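User: I'm writing a short methods note and want a consistent example. For ATP synthase subunit I, I'll paste the sequence; you return only the C-alpha cells, no commentary, since I'll be parsing the reply automatically.
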Amino acid sequence: MLDLHQIFSMQKKALFFLFALCALGWGFTPYQSIFLGIGLGAFFGTYNFWILVRRMDKFDSSISEGKRVVSLGSALRFGSGVAAVAIAITLPQYFHLVSTVIGLMIPYVFLVIGAIVYSVKNK
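Assistant:
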C-alpha cells in the first residue's frame, strides 16, 4: 500500500490540474463564482489533508517512541473548513457556497479514487 506522503504528492499533482481547470472555468465561463468556490474549497481541503499527513507522522513517532499519543488535529481541520465556509458566506458575490463545500470534499474523493486505482492495478 502507498504511504501517506506518496498519496499526498499524487493529490497535489491532481489538485494543480483542478486549480488550472478552475482558473479556465473562471476566465471563460459565466459561472465564475462556482469555479472560485470549488477552488477555495479544494484549497482548504488540501490544507486539511496536509494537516492530517503531518499529524499522522507525529502520531506514528509518538507511538514508536512510547510517548503519550497526541491529537490528530480534528479541531484544526474542522476550523479550517468553517473558515472556508465563512469566506464563502461573507463574500457571496465571489464564492458560491455549495461549490465551496463540494471543493472541501475533493481531496477525499481523490483519496478514494487513488485507493481504487491502486487496488485494481495490483490485483
